[in-house]
Protein: Cytochrome c
Amino acid sequence: MTRIFLLLFLSFVGCTSIDKKKSIENEVISSKADDYFRVIEGQDEEIDTSLVKRGEILIAYSDCLDCHKIENRAKGPAFLDISKRYPYQEVYIDLLSQRIISGGNGSWGYPVMSAHPNLTVEDSKAMAAFVLSMENLRD
Ligand code: HEC
Structure:
């Protein structure tokens, strides 16, 4: 008797986890279809132009552009979309610099971004500042 219950229980657990997986897959597909992203509200802080310039150069010499383009989606989200999503603020520069170093996934519904453990925090902050300044440079 307990065996039957156990079987029923296991098949129930099996079904729900498959459903869950499907709904996650659907979410990813729909978020890709309309390129949805949630904009984080906030005032931009004053742009540190020398930091931004340094970030631009560092990015040009790194592997970032293998996966990112400025205006269009590629393997990763467009830098312009990233800058539209986050305000240019010290806190977001810090956050994104950590993500650049450790890699990430789940924020944009794309596959995983590779980690860059050899970057210093200083350099990855400059890169994040360049990415976040993009929207302002283009207005
Ligand atoms: C192998 C491909 C790849 C490379 C190389 C790459 N990225 Fe990414 N990047 C991605 C993907 C994919 C995402 C979206 C991850 C997600 O959905 O959270 C992303 C996301 C980001 C984000 C946004 C993170 C967030 O949480 O919103 C920033 C900023 C970023 N990348 C900067 C960089 C910089 C700077 C470099 C170079 C040092 C770089 N990337 C190299 C693929 C890549």
